[in-house]
Write a structure and sequence with these properties.
With 737 residues, this protein is mainly beta. It folds into 7 domains: 23-112, Immunoglobulin-like (Sandwich); 119-215, Immunoglobulins (Immunoglobulin-like), CATH 2.60.40.10; 220-308, Immunoglobulin-like; 313-400, Immunoglobulin-like (Sandwich), CATH 2.60.40.10; 407-503, Immunoglobulin-like (Sandwich); 514-596, Immunoglobulin-like (Sandwich); 602-735, Immunoglobulin-like (Sandwich).
Amino acid sequence: MRRKTGKIFAALSILCMVVASQAFKIEISPESDILAQIGDSVSLTCSTTGCDSPSFSWRTQIDSPLSGKVRNEGTRSTLVMDPVGFDNEHSYLCTATCGSLKLEKGIKVDIYSFPNDPVIHLSSPPEVGKLVTVKCLVSDVYPYDRLEMEILKDGNLMKNREFLEDMDGKNLETKSLEVTFTPVIDDIGKYLVCRAKLHVDKPDFVTTERETTKELQVYISPKNTVISVTPSTNLQEGGSVTMTCSSDGLPAPEIYWNKKLDNGNLQLLSDNATLTLIAMRMEDSGIYVCEGVNLIGKDKKEVELIVQEKLFAVEISPGSQIAAQIGDSVVLTCSVTGCNSPSFSWRTQIDSPLSGEVKSEGTKSTLTLSPVGFENERSYLCSVTCGRKKLEKGIQVELYSFPRDPEIEMNDLLVSGNLATVTCRVPDVYPFDRLEIELLKGESIMKKEVFLGDMDRQSLENKSLEMTFTPTTKDTGKVLACRAKLNIDGMEFKPKQRESTQTLYVNVAPQLPVIQASPSTTLKEGSFVNLTCYSDGLPAPKILWSKQLSNGALQPLSENTTLTLMSAKMEDSGIYVCEGINQVGKSRAEVKLVIQVAPKDIQLTAFPSESVKEGDTVIISCTCGNVTETWIILKKKAETGDKMLKSIGGTYTIRQAQLEDAGVYECESKNEVGSQLRSLTLDVKGRENNNYFSPELLVLYCASSLIIPAIGMIVYFARKANMKGSYSLVEAQKSKV
């Protein structure tokens, strides 16, 4: 009978192979060779029909690395090249195997690169009558032997080139085309065009063309610079003069006025064509330079002014320099000797608004600045005219701001042993380059800094000194001081030093808690237990008791030092967490509480039944689903003595049961608290005589031989999921039997 069955299976296998070979086909997409831009992503897909579970492999024609990622899914395989590079320019072959059959399909991948528009560079700004070179650059081109470039001006071709030379390797190239011409005035507004084309010999590829346009601007360097002076180049003290400058060029030159200093350097005065100087003084005499400047050149002209002296005396108070607190009121007084009826005027050195009130009476004039602000930090000039003569006297107003005591800031509460940062902040300081800050603890200087950096603007600044240190409990009660000094000339009677203090208080984070369990951490159900927790810290930590749940979360229980369980139950078993918490931190400790319960609810079953036939498979399973730490012992009762069974997790399997397997089976579940017994009687009946065999019975037998162990494993894992802890007989014998 077995021989007939084998012949039937062999015939069926041959028939399936013939049918599969006729239907097995392979396709690849895209269907034709492809051209890919370097840096793009390309996917090649290989698919089959006529085979449920084909296997795929990819390779290149020359067996080089794929340089891509392969993803197989059912009857489809995809090769992804992302990004595409030089190492992807190959012919790729996809091989599909179905049983003993193998098919191949190929596709070729060519690459190119033409990602950027051309760039136009000029060797210099175009100037009328001077040669200039136009350079057109095309970057990252491949294959460059197919590149064509041309340069046009106002639509007319100036130069073109085809790059037909052989390439010596695979690489991205930058190609350029240059042309030189002489600009004229008529070229203004015309357009330069750089055009590049990449010709790739592919049937479905359209020639790629890129171009860049640049409008021409033609320049003329400044020339013919002229100065006119009104009323004259010879002036009296107190007089005024206006000088006007012009210069030719394209684009129109910008005009700058400078004064030549004694060392030959130039001092910039104005960027207007007209320069007006009022209330001239003798020191205003000198050479003044007008300069016409545009993008491509400059031209200059000089004129000398002479200012003659006028005699009488002028005094200004409170002196040549005064330091004033921002927001205060300042009075400047100008007085004259040697003139009975003078006339007064006030101005700033740079002729900006006075921002003050002027009062003149007799031989005195006052300028009141109230309140003083940044607009008042300058030199003020008092001009006095007596007859035809005019004199000036100046006073420099220096500003400062130092209005409040320093502010002491801590980054957080002070914790013993932890780094702490203290900041001493001085608000609204000016000028900060004269500021000095000291940070002291007790009488010791912790850090000191002098702010000597250059100031780039007039503004009130907040300056600070930062110090990091490690506090200890010995620092509690000490005084932290921040001392600031502002050193400015002329402020002898103003407060130069300010100071703030703060008394230190150092905290101590909770220490590792200590847990005491009375009478023990292992108890019988119904027992009494006290869990007591202690933790040191400053301020004294608050105690929080929690129980750790199965998902790891904590369930709050008590805020008392001692947690009491009056009558412990099995569900009270678990991990209890004590946390010591204060305002600077927390620490925790754990204790495991075990509540012991005698075994109960024991289950002893036989699958598929307690009555089976000879040759059947029987699974005997014992479970105890309510108690942890339980030993499971399986045995067969006999007159000559009990026989211990080697079970796996309380499950014993009898394969091809015999008549002698019939009898009483007993399961014992026990732990340190108690035990429980269960038994069952297995009946094994004799096999019926059967003289024939069929393939259907063979299939049914094979299926049952797989299903029954699977069911046994399901029962085993179900038991493991429903009870916490079970042991095989082997393990039980090691520890208890």
